[in-house]
Amino acid sequence: AVLSLTGETVSIRGAGRTDSGVHAMGQVIHADLSKEWSPYQLQNALNAHLRLAGERVSILDVEAVAEFFDARFSALRRHYLYRIVSRRAPLALEAGKAWWVPKVLDHEVMHAAAQRLVGRHDFSTFRAAHCQANSPVR
């Protein structure tokens, strides 16, 4: 959409990545454009180009940021939501947005297991070879 709107090939950096089939709500990106745009005009123009291209994504907000802003490294926090629907009936409206488990789940056992994730942990084992994070501890 940026290329079709501006004619510029620009680098677009996101605050994070999603795995295939995962939805990103509130994803923050940044792009350095050569022309000055009002946030309102840029949002509407990008959404028009996305709509014409048949894309299923929307720009909800546009803000001008400082030169040093980086969507990935300036992020203050990230929030993840995982939805599991445990019932016999298959998903209809939630299809693709939740994991359907047609069996009864033991919530107490799941909660106890999840408690092992609470707190600070060293994720060195899960880091890519060229990971840019300052520390594997989260």
What name does CATH use for the topology of the largest domain?
A: Alpha-Beta Plaits
Query: Mean pLDDT, nearest integer?
Result: 89
For this structure, what is the CATH class of the largest domain? Alpha Beta
H/E element string? Answer: HEEHEEH
CATH architecture verdict of the largest domain: 2-Layer Sandwich
Total E-strand runs: 4
First-to-last CA distance? 35 Å
Structural category is alpha+beta
Task: Detail the poorly predicted runs.
Answer: none
Largest sheet report: 2 strands, antiparallel
**Superfamily at the CATH H level of the largest domain?**
Pseudouridine synthase I, catalytic domain, N-terminal subdomain
Which percent range fits the helix content? 10-25%
Beta-strand percentage range:
5-15%
**Number of spatially distinct domains:** 2
Number of helices in the DSSP assignment? 3
Evaluate the radius of gyration: 20 Å
- Biggest sheet strand order reads 1-2
Q: Shape, please?
A: flat
GO biological process, one term: tRNA pseudouridine synthesis
Pfam families: PseudoU_synth_1
Protein name: tRNA pseudouridine synthase
InterPro entries: PsdUridine_synth_cat_dom_sf, PsdUridine_synth_TruA, PsdUridine_synth_TruA_a/b_dom, PsdUridine_synth_TruA_C, TruA/RsuA/RluB/E/F_N
Quick tags:
two-stranded antiparallel sheet; 2 domains; 138 residues; alpha+beta; two-stranded parallel ribbon
Detailed description of the structure:
With 138 residues, this protein is an alpha+beta fold. The longest helix has 14 residues. The strands form two sheets. Strands 1-2 form a two-stranded antiparallel ribbon. Strands 3-4 form a two-stranded parallel sheet. The chain folds into two domains: 78 residues, Alpha-Beta Plaits; 43 residues, no CATH class.
